[in-house]
Specification:
Layout lengths: L9 H11 L11 H15 L12 E5 L6 E4 L10 H10 L13 H9 L22 E7 L6 E6 L5 E5 L10 E4 L4
Antiparallel strand pairs: 1-2, 2-6, 3-4, 4-5
């Protein structure tokens, strides 16, 4: 007796394909509590003024002049002064206030932070020693001076003046920033 070949129907093929697919990834889903916390945080951010402490401990400094996003700083400077490369690596690897998306501010963002340095919780948290010499009262920006690669713009927090400085030289301060989309 000849053996009859079994063939799958279209419905059976679809069912088999469905069952063999990889399991869905639910890692990006939030619990109801996480959604509730995110909404509460968004409401606080929406009403924030420069110097206000956010629920996660970061400090709101205003809208970035470069990205038009809400900008936040860490509650304090990095614990050590460092050269530019070390400061950039430090900021990129920073995991604080529940976030891992920190970076050094641009020159314009750093100038804005300087303008708001006496607001609310920012007051007294920057090194504003009055000296023209490079040192911890100067802060790194991520903006490179166009005519000399490796030379970065810096801002002195005692006076607000900007200057340029070789990134591999004397250690100075850094205050990382992060962003959240601006409200429309």
């Amino acid at each position: 007796m000849a053996e009859k070949k079994k063939t799958l129907t279209e419905a059976q093929k679809k069912a088999a394909a469905f069952l063999t697919r990889a399991k869905p990834d639910f890692s990006g889903w939030r619990t109801a509590r996480e959604v509730e916390v995110a909404k509460a945080e968004a409401e606080v951010i929406a009403k924030a003024k420069a110097g206000d402490v956010m629920p996660n401990g970061s400090i709101y400094v205003g809208i970035s002049p470069d990205t038009q996003e809400r900008m936040f700083v860490t509650a304090q400077d990095a614990s050590l002064s460092m050269n530019f490369n070390d400061a950039a690596i430090y900021a990129k690897g920073l995991a604080v206030h529940g976030r891992k998306d920190w970076r050094l501010p641009t020159l314009d963002e750093l100038k804005m932070i300087f303008q708001n340095k006496e607001e609310g919780a920012l007051k007294g948290t920057f090194n504003a020693t009055d000296s023209s010499e490079m040192g911890p009262h100067w802060y790194w920006s991520s903006t490179e001076w166009y005519s000399n690669p490796g030379t970065m713009w810096v801002v002195r927090f005692s006076a607000g003046d900007a200057g340029i400085y070789p990134g591999d030289r004397t250690p100075i301060s850094c205050r990382p920033v992060r962003f959240a989309p601006a409200l429309k």
